[in-house]
């Protein structure tokens, strides 16, 4: 299992997006979206959504989840629109049979992955050969069922390492393994319950702390050096 290193001093510096944004081949841009009440005004954000996004959000049961989803999807549209040079509401996101979102047609050169948890959403954007990526973000909070999830989803070795952890370290170790697994399966879109295709190499995976109280993992066939990653804030992006 991964050595514990949840330290708020490791949070990267997130900056406002420049007016002219350039995504070099094989580069990695990470975007942070505030989905709390301090984020985008839901009414304004609603105007940036497509009909399909509005339909999915309307099906959510609780208003708080609806508002967070509105901010998440509006932020995603704003981000992708910057690269595609179009209006946010003109971004057309397709979904594979397993639910993995993607862009096609003239926008197919741009790969992205999105994850949201509690009051934060994280978007990874990439381009170039083997640009497919997976992003997972998890809110760090008390959980009662994570060992049951680990027994069902982790490898024998991962589960054994988790059970050897002290009680105080166990949740963090679980989150390191869980975010890595989620990012991995989102990278190739196979889903949590399917094995990797034969003769395919697993992606490279790296962790980061996007904000205090959160842990994230990024998966891509080949990750660029961490020093080259760009951390961008989607406030008025």
Give a brief description:
By secondary structure, the protein is an alpha+beta fold. The protein is built from 6 helices and 10 strands; from the N terminus they run ββαααβββββαααβββ.
Total discrete domains: 1
Name of the CATH architecture? Alpha-Beta Complex
For the biggest β-sheet, the strand order reads: 1-10-2-6-5
| Helical coverage, percent range | 25-40%
How would you state the average pLDDT, rounded?
92
Give the DSSP E fraction (strand runs of 2 or more residues).
15-25%
Tell me the number of strands.
10
Q: Write down the CATH class.
A: Alpha Beta
- The name of the CATH topology is Ribosomal Protein L22, Chain A
Ends: how far apart? 37 Å
Report on the architecture of this protein.
The chain has a single domain, classed as Alpha-Beta Complex (Ribosomal Protein L22, Chain A). It starts with 14 loop residues before the first strand and ends with a strand. With 237 residues, the protein is α+β, with helices and mostly antiparallel strands. The chain is built from 6 helices and 10 strands.
Write the topology of this structure:
Layout: E1 15-16, E2 28-34, H1 42-46, H2 51-58, H3 63-84, E3 94-95, E4 101-102, E5 110-117, E6 120-127, E7 133-139, H4 146-153, H5 156-164, H6 167-188, E8 204-208, E9 214-220, E10 230-233
Parallel strand pairs: 1-10, 2-10
Antiparallel strand pairs: 2-6, 3-4, 5-6, 7-9, 8-9
Helix pairs in contact: 2-3, 5-6
GO molecular function: holo-[acyl-carrier-protein] synthase activity; magnesium ion binding
GO cellular component, one term: cytosol
Protein name: 4'-phosphopantetheinyl transferase
């Amino acid at each position: 299992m991964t050595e514990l290193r949840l330290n708020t001093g490791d949070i990267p510096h997130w900056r406002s997006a420049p007016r002219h944004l350039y995504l070099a081949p094989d580069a990695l841009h990470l975007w942070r979206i505030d989905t709390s009440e301090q984020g985008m005004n839901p009414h304004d954000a609603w105007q940036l959504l497509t009909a399909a996004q509005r339909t999915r959000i309307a099906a959510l049961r609780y208003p708080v989840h609806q508002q967070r989803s509105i901010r998440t999807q509006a932020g995603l549209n704003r981000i992708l629109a910057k690269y595609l040079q179009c209006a946010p509401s003109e971004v057309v996101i397709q979904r594979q049979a397993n639910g993995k979102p993607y862009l096609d047609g003239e926008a197919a050169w741009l790969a992205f992955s999105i994850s949201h948890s509690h009051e934060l959403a994280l978007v990874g954007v990439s381009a170039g050969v083997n640009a497919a990526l997976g992003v997972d973000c998890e809110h760090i909070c008390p959980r009662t069922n994570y060992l049951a999830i680990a027994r069902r989803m982790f490898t024998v070795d991962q589960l054994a390492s988790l059970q050897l952890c002290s009680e105080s370290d166990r949740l963090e170790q679980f989150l390191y393994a869980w975010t890595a697994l989620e990012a991995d399966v989102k990278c190739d879109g196979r889903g949590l319950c399917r094995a990797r295709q034969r003769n395919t190499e697993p992606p490279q995976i790296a962790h980061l702390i996007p904000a205090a109280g959160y842990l994230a993992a990024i998966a891509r066939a080949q990750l660029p050096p961490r020093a080259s990653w760009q951390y961008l804030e989607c406030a008025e992006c």
